[in-house]
Structures are given as structure tokens and as C-alpha cells.
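FORM 7B - TANDEM STRUCTURE REPORT

SECTION 1: FIRST PROTEIN
SEQUENCE AND C-ALPHA CELLS:
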Amino acid sequence: MQEQPTTTTQPEAAVQPERLVTQETDIFAWANNLFEYKEDLRLDIFLMSKTGVLYRAKLSNELAKQLQPLFVDGVLEYVLDGVDNGLTVRGFEEAESEENVLQRTKVARVDKLAETLNWIVTQEHEIEQFQEDHDLKRIRGIVARCSHPKMPEPFYVVKQLPSAQLLKGDGAWMLQTNTFVPITAGVLRVPADNQLLVIAGDVYVFNQAKLERLFGYNAKKASIAEKKVRTIEAHFKLRFADELDLQTLVKGNKATINKLQKIDPASVTQDELLSHAEELGLGLMADEDGAIIIMNNKDLTTFVNLLNDDYVESALTGNRYEIKSKRPLKVTEEPAA
């Protein structure tokens, strides 16, 4: 995340970073307990840019009255109604999304979300307040930190903001004292739908598309990639740079995660893969024990591309290619004479 200006103000007490990783939660018990404190919650608002930079948002007293309906009421109503309607909570790895099922994953799995929350928890005093000279068009998300003195730690509600939110300029009018006047300031519209709720180490996902758009995390693809990595580790002998492993390199690597979805790691042997890499001059190396050396993301990309059979040599020209998209040829057979 981009470095923020430093001040000497101390951050307020907040959830500890390790709690974002390890704490297991019961959303139904959480909702029942929250109902007692709901009217006295404190909500602090942070804006998140497209590059992940956070800003504190200063709100008027009139605007502050809208916070609970926008960020808390819908989530609380959904969960409490779900108690009577048989709502169940499942991890993304357990089942597909379906009616009356609330999906959940771990904050630790979503790197960009964990980074955002950790910034709020540990470096809030360095977060700049959003000003008029900042570019509102670059703001893509909003985070509400909800706290109460009697709650052990805050919870967070996260939403994606509509992209068409900047209304100022020619053709943008507003009615003021019965007269239309131009809009001279940016207008921020916060959606009312439930999207993401963070309680300690869990992310409750009401809208999976928002999770992917805000933080680049597709839980289903990540789960499949993890399983493929385990198969690769069982089928291939690999050697990594210090403190690296295959899961660490793949995690958060969108291109590699996408490619792993359809790969069959057992379709080729280690010797066949190394031989093919040598024939094509790809520079994939092996150590004295025959283990494939993967020192960085470049080596990882070459290795995964080989598994996906993405490199070919033309029988016609002898040129070598990396194929971005493969469509099997449909061979038309000549009719029998």
C-alpha cells in the first residue's frame, strides 16, 4: 500500500492484527450481542482508492445519522431474520453459493483486504484525511469501522462504490431554493446493499462479485488453485529460494491462479517437462538431485506454462511460440469411398 504522511497522533484502540487471522466467529451470536449496542455504535469511515490508498472521511452531524441504516441495519436484519429462516454459513471451499447460505472465508486468504485492515489497525495515525483537492474519481471502496466500548473489538463493513459517482461539470445540476444551480463538488453515493462484513478473522461475503472487484480475490478459483498446488507438490520434485514455497508464490498471483484451474499436473512427468523445457531453450533449471528450481515468479510462470502445454515449436517454420489461448482443431474426416 502506498505510504501515507506521518503524524504524531496515536491511533485509537482497535482489533489486533493477529485477531484478523485466527479468531473464529459465530455470526448469529454476534448479531444477538450487537443488538444491545446498536444504537450507540461509533462508526468511523475510510475511503479506499483504486490503488489501495486509504483516506479518513470527515462527516457532518447530519450525514452521520445515515451511517447505521447504510452499514449496520441491513446486515443485522439479514442475519437475525436468517435465524428463523434456516440461514446457514459455509466456507467457500465447502459448497457453491445458494439461497439461504451465507459464504465465509478467512481474512488471511484475501491479501489486499488483510493489508487494508492492518493499515487501519496499526497505522491509522498515518492515514490522511480526504480533502477537496483529492480525486474522488479514484475512490472505489468504503470501509466502516464499527465499535463500542463494551465490544471486545470492532467489526468492519466494506462496500464497493459505484464508478459513475462524479457528477460535477457541465450538465450536472441540482435544485437549491427552487432554482437549478450547477453542481460544483463531487457527489459520493454509498450503496445500501449488503456486501462484505469482517468480524475478527472472518469475511462474511454477501456479494462474491464485490469481493473480487475490490480485492481481486475469487474464492472458488483460489480454492481450486490450492488443491492443484498440493497435487503438483506430490507429483513433482521442486526446490525454492529461501522462505518461499509453491503456495506462497501462487497466492495472489491472478494469472497463475487462472491458469491452474484446468491444468492436470499428473499428465506429464518431471523428466518429460524438463526435457521439453530444454528443447525449447526456456532456461528452466534442475539441481543435482533433479529437482526443478523455482527462484522467483518468472520461473513459476515458465513452470506453470509448461504444465499447461503453452509452448510449441512450429513444424512449418521452426519458430517457437507461447500460446495465450488454445482452441482444439476440429478435423474434418474425408468420407469413405
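SECTION 2: SECOND PROTEIN
SEQUENCE AND C-ALPHA CELLS:
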Amino acid sequence: MAFDLKQYATSLRLTDGSIGVRLTDGATGTQLAALGLPAGTPSEVWNVVNPSAVEKVARSYIEAGSEIILTNTLCANRFILAAHGIESRVAELAEAGALIARRAADASKAQGRQIKVFASIGPSGKIVMTEEVSKDDLAAAFAQVAEAVAFGGVDAIVLETFNELDELKIALEAVKKVAALPVVACLTFSSGPDKTRTMMGNSPADLARAAKAGGADAVGANCGTGPENYVAVTKMLREACDLPLWVKPNAGLPELGRDGRAHFRMGPEEFASYGPKLVAAGASFLGGCCGTTPAHIKALATAIKAK
């Protein structure tokens, strides 16, 4: 039986009769960097070169309370990997990422937990409006990743960290054609006076309309400037549609350290303090993006349970 994401989003009931939020995971890339991933190396390479480290990160989020973990496949598309001369390894790296997350999730069954695995698919790094790459080529690239992660046994797909709505629509259509899986469609909102617009000027309502028209099973926002503005973004998404909402903000804005890496200063307690506000705004799935750690997710779990 196919996984029903909408039913899963509303099936968790609290003791007061209200619907509970599903807890997702935090950042993967920054966690792998802490384990020694060299700067400038695509994290997806470690799905083959150092799979134990990738699985360690996945398991750490499960231990922190995550009910959903994402695959280490955000940049596993031919355009981004071409910059590193490994575009021919898309299917290999994407499938390996799915299998690692599946293994970590299945290991939790002994403790009576049913962890879901969602595949992370990010943007191509190309801009649709410039016509640098044809829409057909973009669609083929997204379809290639989707087929590989589906073969690896994921439960759903998350299109995340997109800045351009037109590219997201291409990805959504392509993925739905080749994978019989639920799809979450997300944009990053970090522009405009109140930080509720995308880099291209799209609003949460624009996203909601496009996602619903394209057959997305859930809609959401990830990355960005931090959790504060995503309270408003979540409210706007909830007002615009009735789909489950997926929300994963960054731990604030990054600062470039002397080591050349991005560092995030927002700690677990401050990050988690926004959890109840995001739930009240309408979030169905809640976690963290860049800079968040298992400690952030554990604190978030405590905060939303205490709401």
C-alpha cells in the first residue's frame, strides 16, 4: 500500500484531542562537515566513500526524536555534480543515499518506532528565466534523481531549497511522472521587507497555488534567515491552502569562520522557542535546516510537546 502523506500528517493525536505535529530532522551537510567532510566536496560523495558517517548522522536524528529523516541527496543532480566532474554518478549516489537512510530507519523498528524516509531533491543551480538550460533538460535531471531514490526505497520526496517557483514547478511535474510517491514542494523565503518573499519575489500564496495545481501532497518552506519570519510564512501558507505544511528553517543566518566554513550561532533552546509558534501557525511537519543539529531537534521535540 502506498504511503499516504496527508493521512500521516493528521494521524498523530494528542491527549487533548488536537492533531500533533510530525518531527522531522535537522541539517545533514553541516553535520557531515563536523565529521570531516572536506570543504567544497559534495556531501553526496560520502554516500559511497564514507557511508558509515552518513548513517551516523541519520541515526543521531532518530535518537533525538525525529520521526522523518531525509536522504543525503540534496545536490545529487547532473548539473551540480558536473562542476565536480562526477555527473555520471547521479543515480549511484542518489540510490546509495536512499539506502543509507532506509537502513538507519529500519534499525529503529526493534525499538517499536516507524521512521519514515523522505528523499531530499534540491534545485539544479540553473535559472529557468535565463534559459541557460532547457526545461526538458531540467525535467530529465530531476526525473533521474527521483527514479534513483525511489529505487532506494524512500517513502516520499521533498523538493526543497528552491528559490525559483518556475524551477520548482518543473521539478514537481517531472518527479510526479516517474515516481509513485508523495511529494512535498518547498521554496526558500528570505527576501522582501518582512522576509516572506522568495529571491524571485514569489509569495507563500504563489507557492500554495502552484503546488496544489501541480499535485503536490504537501507544501512548505525551508532554509532562509531563521525561524522567526517562518512563523508569518507558515500562516500565509495555511491561509492559502489546506495541504499539510512542511517547515524547516535555518538556525539563523550563517557567519563565515576563519576555517572558511559557515557557522550558525542560534543555539538549540533559542531555535526551539519558535516551535510552538510555528505549530500554532499551522505547521504539520517541523524540523530544521542549515546549522541545526540533533541537539536542536531534541530541544524542538521538548518545546512542541510542552506547548
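SECTION 3: OBSERVATIONS ON SECOND PROTEIN
The chain is about 45% helix and 15% strand.
The mean pLDDT is 94.

SECTION 4: SIGNATURE
Preparer initials: ____
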